[in-house]
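During the no-cost extension, the postdoctoral fellow (Dr. R.K.) reprocessed legacy sequence entries with the updated structure-token encoder. One reprocessed record is reproduced below for audit purposes.
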Amino acid sequence: MTEFPTTPAEHQQGKRNAFTRFLDGVEWLGNLLPHPVTLFALLALGIVLLSGLMGYMGVAVVDPRPAGAPGVAEDGMIRAVSLLDGDGVRRIFTGLVDNFTGFAPLGVVLVAMLGVGVAEKSGLLSAAVRSLVMGAPPKLVTVAIVFAGIISNTASEVGYVVLIPLGGAIYYALGRHPLAGMAAAFAGVSGGYSANLLIGTIDPLLAGITQEAAQLIDPDYTVLATANWYFMFASTFLVAVIGSLVSIYIVEPKLGEYDASKADPTILDDGMMKPLTEDERKGLRWAGIALLGVLALMAITLVPEWGILRNAEDGDRMDSPFFDGFVVWIFIFFVTIGYTYGRATGTMKTDRDVIDAMAAALSSLGLYIVLVFFAAQFVAFFGWTNLGAITAVTGANFLVETGMTGPMVFFLFILICAVINLSLGSASAQWAVTAPIFVPMLMLIGYSPEAIQAAYRIGDSTTNIITPMMSYFGLILAWATRYQKDLGVGTLIAMMLPYTIFFITAWSVFFYLWTFVMGIPVGPGSPTYYTP
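Re-encoded structure tokens follow.
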């Protein structure tokens, strides 16, 4: 059995190999870019200028979606939209504020941080982390963080706003580089986005898009939300192992010893390795009781047939207000257990303590809010111009033109999906545009929509961690700069690039072996092949 080192110190002083030097080059080039806020501002300006050029040239592609579908133009074309003409300039001016306030991750982060702030200020997070790391075998901490990141996808955004910064805190408490802990968590949460032991909120969404695309060929074809469950269940363990090995043997050694002088002093806690006091143990016990109470409340709203947070129309549990509003549960969870802990230990006595904790949490997000303003404009402008959709359709058409028909076509398919994901970060938005091309095309050469969807999800997940187009990329960057104030985009991308390379390689091979060598279906009732 492979022995995971307690710390990678024995690798840190070793000779830097070619791969490490390659990552150094990526980091150097990336850090030549300006400050991330300036970078997003320049990207937004660049999109405006590029849209003017593309609009003037009349760039357009045939829309693969059926006529009459939402968003399909009357002439069936996707055209580049200029933001330099009168309509475009007016849209920029009238939409600037809405782009910022409507940026989905912003509201999620702010609401979640109100609750997390209470848990942090009360001392609960510090005590919980110390209880965890001082009682767990150090060799398994990395594996636990990556695995927890993968599983967190079931609970929507909780991994991004809670687990990734917690990964940094855990590593710092262990005397290891906190960015390595954040990288391990980020790899699990975002790089392993499509792997899970349970069906998540994204499964029914993708299945619905796949079914619509499949019905272009076979009007009676149905795709279940569980279409990829077998494969994604098994992928959970693959991604956890690969992510852990990359963290231990590549990322952490490259980061080297942590220099705390580069950190924001407010993020460092000299008491992170002190043994728990009796008051803290008492507080954790009361917090555990509060935790059980919150879990019971969650179950009451979802499990019974009369559960108030189930889908009001059909009673469905997955496509329901429970998961659509999961950030509210994050808020309730941390406020409840944080205040309970604070009352038990004496760190919180009145409502003013709770309010001060919430205010302090939001005050630490200044850089993130500034960054989000410009990132939101860039993402909105990119969507308005249709450049992302044009890129997606162009990539799909390239695959069609290759003329490949054997199972090896899936390697190219996964790679193209991964490249498209760099510019079109939303899994559902990308699949809505490309599924009407990929699904009918691959069905006609004999492959089932369920297998096609499983392959797409590999490509979509593995480049989430290296693209600024991913909605939470700015948040991760803001968290990371608290531990290293001079950190640039290049450092973050170079830190995550090894995960992308190993994930897409190992996961693609695993898909090929699972589906075409061992002949195992990707999900219950999901065939591998389709007979036109």
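The chain has 22 helices and two strands. Strands lie at 60-62, 77-79. The remaining legacy entries will be reprocessed before the final report is submitted.
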